[in-house]
Amino acid sequence: YTEAWNADKTSVHVMPDTPTILLAKANAANISHKHYQKAWDDAKAKSYDIRADAIPIKHAKASRDIASEYKYKETHEKQKGHYIGCRTAKEDPKLSWAARAMLLQNDRLYRKAYHDSKAHIHIPVDAMSVQAAKECQTLVSDVDYRHYLHQWTCLPDQNDVIHARKAYDLQSDVRMRRDM
Asked: What is the pTM of this model?
């Protein structure tokens, strides 16, 4: 009795055509490395050689490069006759003359600037006597002393504008007297 039970326990009673069993068998076939490798070998045997260093591929690349270079040289030779002017700037007389004129002009400007600035005397900005002289000159100078606020133009009957003008003049005089 127990031997029959143990034997029956280890055997599985599943129908072989159930959908889950069929799906599991298909998945096992898809995942299997052996089946994948066999399918790849069959595809290689039926198809063409796709290695990058295969002789037909190298030959096609070389012939493409030769044809491209030949076409480039042919179009270049055709266009050579249509070019206008000189091949280089040194061969063109106008360009070479302009280059020489530019060099002479630069040299002339350099010498002129040198002669203009060689006679100037440069005094250090922070010299005490220079600073004192500048301050005295600003005190003595009357150029920026009074600040007139407006140039007045108005009609004779505009009393508010005339009054404002007199007020501004008085204010400017008060500032001037305060500084004395």
From this structure: 0.21
Separation of alpha carbons 42 and 36, rounded Å:
10
The Cα 25–Cα 23 span in angstroms is: 5
**Alpha helix segments (H runs only) across the chain:** 2-10, 19-31, 33-46, 55-80, 93-117, 128-140, 159-179
Residue 45: C-alpha distances to residues 29, 33, 40, 49, 56 (Å): 21, 18, 9, 9, 18
The Cα 129–Cα 132 span in angstroms is: 5
Cα 160 from Cα 166, distance rounded (Å): 10
Contact 89, 99 (CB under 8 A): yes
Q: Exposure of 142 by Cβ count < 10 A (0-12 exposed, 13-18 middle, 19+ buried)? A: exposed
The length of the chain in residues reads 180
Torsion of Cα atoms, 57 then 60 then 66 then 69, to 10° = -90
Name the nearest CA neighbour of 89 among 105, 73, 102, 75. Answer: 102
pLDDT tens by residue, 93-119: 888 888 888 888 888 888 888 888 777
